[in-house]
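Below: protein 1.
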Amino acid sequence: MGVFKAAAIQMRSGESPERNAVDLERLVREAAGQGATYIQTPEMTGALIRDRQARAASFTSEDKDVVVATARRLAKEFGVFLHIGSTAIARADGKLANRALLFGPDGATLATYDKIHMFDVDLDNGESWRESSAYEPGTEAVVAEIEGAKLGFAICYDLRFPQLFRAEALAGADLLSVPAAFTRQTGEAHWHVLLRARAIENGAYVVAAAQGGLHEDGRETYGHSLVVDPWGRIIAEAAHDEPAVIVAEIDPAQSLAARKKIPNLKNARDFAVNGSGEAPRLRGAAS
């Protein structure tokens, strides 16, 4: 397993997929120019649109999506693994999927992942979000091979469900992805600590490309894209909410070393709660 460079692209996606595709291309070119061979973009790279009717008018099927086409072309041009953290894709049943896509160095689609956990919350600053009213949740965790590493997929709110990451780690993932559009309030409170925790719990690298700043639709996101190593150390950060590219070296051997020092994946045991005699069934657990 060789060392390679990973990039996290921080964006401020607006309401136009075409304009966002132009920004995407500029930032991918910058990341590739810094030697990154795995490049990740944030959640909703294609567009952040709060209005339901505007969403319906802007989003289309995967084969017609401008961000998908741009990413496919750039992956092939630079010979990189390009991971669109997510974009909204119109499904055949008329619903939307919050979908991540991984393109290989030949431009082929290597994997897709639909966000499993929907952000349905009322924050104490007055913000209210109901992702489930617009998007159909995914049902399957995904692990794909890149650069001699195994990449586990997640999107934004998935970060708060550690069983997803544990299942992917048990399936061999040593690099975990958390492209996101965290709100400023929740990001300031929990972003860094949760990303470091997922890395430590699973002895895995975490790459988290983020949206940042005040967007056209009025929402404000936290930024602070991160790369965390398997020991929980932050090895790269965009310490602001402006568009940016951060790059860090990924050494899959360091994941193996961390798991040997703290073998919690191997030492996990089944257990019952309150003497019921039945092991608890965690949603999304591997067993």
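Below: protein 2.
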Amino acid sequence: MKFDGKLGLQQRVLPSYRVPFFDLLAQFCEGMSLFAGQARPVEMIAGGKPQVAKYAEAKNIHLFSGAFYLCYQQNFIRWLEEWNPDALIVEANPRYLSTPAAVRWMHARGRKVIGWGLGAPKQSKVWGRFIRQFDAMLSYSQRGADEYAALGFSREKTFVAHNSVSAKPEQKSDDRPLTVDRATLLFVGRLQARKRVDSLLRACAEMESNPRLLIVGDGPERAALESLAREVYPSAEFIGAKHGAELKPYFKQADLFVLPGTGGLAVQEAMSYGLPVIVAKGDGTQDDLVRAGNGWQIQPEDYDALVSTMKNALSDRARLHEMGKESFRIVSEEINIQKMAEAFVNALNSVM
């Protein structure tokens, strides 16, 4: 598949984990330019720059915070004039104040604009008006697509590009041996309150099987979590921050990946190593990724559900092994950045 035109793609910020996807997408286009600015320091988002796609830095003006946050990106129209794209993909978020003018600029020249987002609140007139300006919608998940449809956007013009940050895995799922000693549980992520690693430590203390727990990551909660671990689960191993190839040995050692809080870019990576997963429900992207065949979804603040699910998972190691094979199949065949890029190209070609 290929888009025979110049693509413009707007992002509020360009996090490093998105760069491989954007570089891959650029290979499917005649040309592609990214327009993105810098995050606020408090967000602690590691930025990146593409190697294949062109990059134009926006001047982000951040207004207010929390529920009232707004962002205006200076020079959006100037970038459009200079790049002169045949189609534009923008983040579908009404908090980004410069988007409507960019849509009008494109439409005035008979060109198409696609919105890309997580979904939308139900029965929101603001969101309904906002998404109607787009020629098509790209959704991170099926849940998001259903939310756009509930606001009246055409299902025929809505495309699901399953949110992915990982390439199609290369190793075979049967490369993972079935261990015979105690199970190893793995958490990978930033150590902050919303990840609920404290709940994971307490839950491990309730497991009769006394699993090995590897906690890979760093962050503002590390000292407090290490202190808690000394009290409730002293055998927990705090590995520190690891990235890229440094993570491989920990994924290879694990039998089960557990993410008890929100977020979780590492879930797909864990699945690519043939791991079953326990994850907290979030924005809908987990619904397509984590299924009965390869893992469990729990409410992010339901400690009892975490404990019972972990006990269930660890009660049958052979079943865990088979669920890990299904995890590998899902990210190999259905949800990876190659499939995501194909969905983007499909949406682009449908509106041109």
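The mean pLDDT is 94.
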